[in-house]
Specification:
Elements lengths: L10 H9 L11 E2 L2 E8 L3 E3 L4 E10 L4 E4 L4 E4 L6 E4 L4 E5 L6 E5 L11 E5 L32 E9 L3 E4 L2 E3 L2 E4 L6 E8 L6 E4 L5 E7 L6 E4 L5 E8 L18 E3 L17 E8 L13 E5 L6 E3 L2 E5 L2 E6 L1 H8 L4 E3 L2 E4 L2 E6 L8 H11 L3 E3 L7 E3 L7 E4 L48
Length: 454
């Protein structure tokens, strides 16, 4: 069936559209009182401006090498009846360059806003992945399901100062739209200052790709905050994960749990070893779990869940409040990478309500919780604590108004290191402090583009 295209045209076309009263079955965009309904497939470059509000009606695809430019301060909304999803498909670009005082906001159009009113934002590039997933998740149409390529330097555009609120769209168990999904996005793409708020599924999920990012906030999302798989191999610095203790998504009978980090390579059936291997290199994160607060959901899991053949480096970071455990390593290949020092949790601080260290699903690798603790705290220079107060952050568990600034005497005030090839890369700002927030500077998590108490 022919898809209707709802989009802005040139100024003259817009003038005609503003006089139109056609309903959703017509071919003219409905423009009324500065509000524009958008649906279908965009195949020519478009420019969305801050003087209008754009409502996504179902799945909207930017395709055919088109570029969607979105001005600072522009609002893109969705109603719960369609849970709109914006998909920037491979070869096309999004140029969403907000500013600190004029962020671009994707949000609910309902009076009583709830997670799932919006679907989410999906970017699909032409970088490499390992085919752990063969198609996009979340019910996209057949013409836009495939992803992956060969160009790790591919450019899908710019995302700067963008906030995504009340997203998430569950099509089937394990088949959802996240707040921001990045499928094989290349390193030519600019990604910084992104917040995902009160999402129904993962905040950020990265399926393969090599893009780098700075200044990310996941706030009160129901499933995992930083979910990486399919061979994602980029770099990330300065990021925050904060959990609402009472809010997780409906797990059904899947046995799933909600974590601050969940990082995989490939599923069991592929033997965990497909290439490229998932291998994020990360620094200066602060991740806050529920820490057994009153009313905590039984579906909360770990601060960090590393599994299914993933490698990782997480350095100069703070992970607090994991419910079942702080750091969990599953499956033999993942454990082997840690034992061999290919992976590391380095120069960081760890505290958990549950055990700080846990290993699971190992058959041939002798890595116990005790030996993991020794590697982390001896070889990798990290520290663990029994009590959250010993980490010395100002007010990390105040969910409505979190304050992640280190206090006087906090071990987070110093101790960072950027040794080794991966961390010495010019991408990383070389800090002396541990965690996301500079104790001697302005708290970037409190800037006007970021919001809390939602």
């Amino acid at each position: 069936m022919k898809k209707n295209i709802y989009l802005l045209g040139l100024a003259g076309l817009l003038g005609l559209a503003s006089c139109s009263k056609k309903n959703d079955s017509g071919t003219t965009p409905i423009v009324s009182n500065g509000k524009v309904d958008v649906r279908g497939v965009i195949t020519a470059s478009q420019h969305w401006t801050a003087d209008k509000v754009y409502r996504l009606r179902g799945y909207v695809y930017v395709d055919n090498n088109a570029t969607l430019t979105i001005d600072p301060g522009t609002k893109i909304v969705s109603n719960k009846d369609s849970a709109g999803v914006l998909v920037i498909y491979k070869g096309s670009k999004i140029m969403a360059q907000g500013t600190a005082d004029k962020p671009i906001v994707f949000t609910s159009n309902e009076t009583d806003r709830k997670p799932g009113d919006l679907g989410g934002l999906v970017i699909v590039g032409l970088a490499t992945g390992n085919e752990n997933h063969t198609v996009l998740e979340g019910g996209v149409d057949v013409a836009h399901q495939k992803f992956g390529g060969t160009n790790d330097a591919d450019n899908s555009g710019v995302l700067q100062y963008v906030r995504i609120e009340y997203g998430g769209k569950a099509v089937n168990p394990g088949d959802e739209i996240n707040g921001l999904s990045m499928y094989t996005v290349g390193s030519g793409t600019t990604v910084d200052h992104i917040e995902v708020v009160r999402g129904l599924d993962d905040a950020f999920e990265f399926f393969g790709g090599a893009f780098n990012a700075k200044y990310l906030i996941a706030y009160n999302c129901a499933d995992d905050d930083f979910d990486m798989d399919d061979g994602y191999h980029g770099k990330i610095q300065f990021a925050v994960s904060i959990k609402d203790p009472t809010f997780t998504d409906n797990k059904g009978t899947t046995g799933d749990i909600s974590n601050n980090f969940e990082v995989d390579n490939t599923k069991d059936a592929l033997g965990y070893m497909s290439t490229p291997v998932t291998f994020p290199v990360m620094s200066n994160f602060t991740a806050i779990g529920p820490n057994n607060a009153s009313g905590v959901s039984a579906d909360y899991g770990y601060g960090m869940r590393w599994r299914r053949g993933a490698k990782f480096i997480l350095a100069n970071s703070i992970v607090m409040g994991g419910q079942k455990a702080g750091m969990d390593i599953d499956n033999d290949p993942t454990a082997t990478y840690y034992v061999n020092s290919e992976s590391g949790f380095r120069n960081s601080l760890l505290q958990s309500y549950g055990a700080n260290y846990q290993t699971d699903k190992l058959t041939s690798v002798a890595l116990t919780a005790a030996t993991l603790k020794s590697l982390v705290e001896t070889r990798d220079g990290s520290k663990s604590f029994a009590n959250a107060t010993d980490v010395g952050l100002t007010d990390p568990f105040n969910n409505q108004a979190p304050n992640l600034m280190p206090k006087t005497g906090s071990p987070a005030l110093n101790g960072a290191a950027f040794t080794g090839t991966a961390l010495s890369d010019a991408f990383f700002t070389k800090t002396t402090y541990v965690g996301a927030v500079d104790p001697t500077g302005t708290d970037w998590t409190k800037a006007g583009w970021a919001v809390y108490a939602r």
